[in-house]
Amino acid sequence: MIMHELGLMNSMLKTAKNALEGQLRPEEKVTKLVLEVGELTGAVPAYLKTAYDSLKKDTIFENCELETIYMPGTVKCKECGETFAARKNNFTCPKCKGIDLSFVTGKELVIKEIIVEE
Amino acid sequence: MENYRVIEVKQSIFDDNDKDAQMLRDEMKSQKTFLMNLMSSPGSGKTTTLKGTLNALKDELKIGVMEADIDSDVDADTISKLGVKTIQLHTGGMCHLDADMTRQGVKNLGTEDLDLVVLENVGNLVCPAEFDTGAAMNAMILSVPEGHDKPLKYPLVFQVCDVLIINKIDVMPYFDFDMDKVKEYALMRNPNLKIFPISAKTGEGMDEWINYLKNRVEDFKK
Questions:
Q1: pTM reported for the whole predicted model
Q2: Residues of A in contact with B14 (CB under 8 A)
């Protein structure tokens, strides 16, 4: 499944590079990238790091560490309003057995912040 | 401690690709070429469905095909024998196509004179759903042996698709496949989804699907 993570990290680096455009002063270096990873994205944080490390060489992120923040997969039942852990309950409301759900958290693949140092 | 500062980004990693995709969509719209992104699991009958579809439309529309499947079961040779312009795309080992790769494919295929371009995405239901290719329409094929619970297990692909083709309905008697359930689950994920139960093998239901596609292409060109 590393293939999947490789594609995601490729996309993240493009987005991060564009986000930094015009923001980075000449004396600054990028040292940390903080990424929120939702449980329901299917992305595995350890694989994301491996993929990231192989892609960052010879870029402005070469000496930049990737930190991932895990976001649990939470859904809300549209029938009764119950909020619950999606995977653990097999996408079925534990209260009313409803399966019509809206996502609360867990679909994130979001760059939260980038830390730069002089 | 050295000086450091935090740059707040709060951007989805798909933002860049989404912008790219929208740009490609606009370009294809202005040259009046309808780009269809076709997604499915491996073994869903993409080859047979595509062959039947292209055969029916190739005299009325100028069609091109881009094959992106890493382990493609659609023989580029078979498709090109139908008299349809075909190229193979190289995903560089990635499990999906993004807008940038699609744009390169469009360039290599040469699409200016084409009415319809079919992009055969990599065969899986997870990664291709996350990356917008810039297509005017997303379609997916689900086959009866895969089971009626797929919309519950892979919600995203059903959310991003305009069309769901349910293939291999000729083998329904041999599988525990509930057609009403699959429709209910799929529409729950996406109320606007157009659903076409077909058998690419026997031809059942193919006319409805082909007519729909033809109308979409014609509407697009107006």
A1: 0.87
A2: 11, 15, 109
